[in-house]
Amino acid sequence: MNGQPAEAKAGETIWDVAKRNGNTIPHLCHRPKKGYRPDANCRACMVEIKGERVLAPSCRRQPTEGM
Predict the structure, then answer these.
(1) Which of 33, 1, 4 is nearest to 16 (CA)?
(2) Helix, strand, coil % over all residues of the chain, rounded to 5
(3) If exposure means fewest CB atoms within 10 Å of the residue's CB, which of 8, 14, 31, 57 is most exposed?
(4) Across 23-30, average pLDDT
(5) What integer pLDDT is reported at residue 39 of this predicted model?
(6) Contact of 18 with 1, CB cutoff 8 Å
(7) Domain total for the chain?
(8) Spatial separation of the C-alpha atoms in residues 65 and 44, rounded to whole Å
(9) Nearest-angstrom CA–CA distance, 51 and 19
């Protein structure tokens, strides 16, 4: 993540891994409160993934090996 290795736990999204590792990704729909869920509709948390042509919503995208 940001050029540094990061390990994801089962069920985590890129946003979760980033937060746990001290990286801030802007977000609107991803809040730990009732009524909020990460739908990826706001697109505030879009991230670039090396080797992919389009940006991905970090609140929904799960990391993969070697990402």
Answers:
(1) 1
(2) 10, 5, 85
(3) 31
(4) 87
(5) 83
(6) yes
(7) 1
(8) 24
(9) 23
pTM of the model: 0.85
User: Which of 7-11, 38-42, 49-53, 55-59 shows the lowest mean pLDDT across its residues?
Assistant: 38-42
**Nearest of 25, 13, 26 to residue 61 by alpha carbon:** 13
pLDDT computed for residue 16 by the predictor:
93
Range of the domain at 16: 1-67
Concatenate the DSSP letters of all residues of 4-21 into one string: S---PPTT--HHHHHHHT
| One-character DSSP codes across 32-56 | SSTT----S-S-TTEE--TT-SS-E
Q: Which amino acid is at 44?
A: A
Token code pair at residue 18: 């980033």
pLDDT of residue 66: 84
Tokens of 43: 């697109």
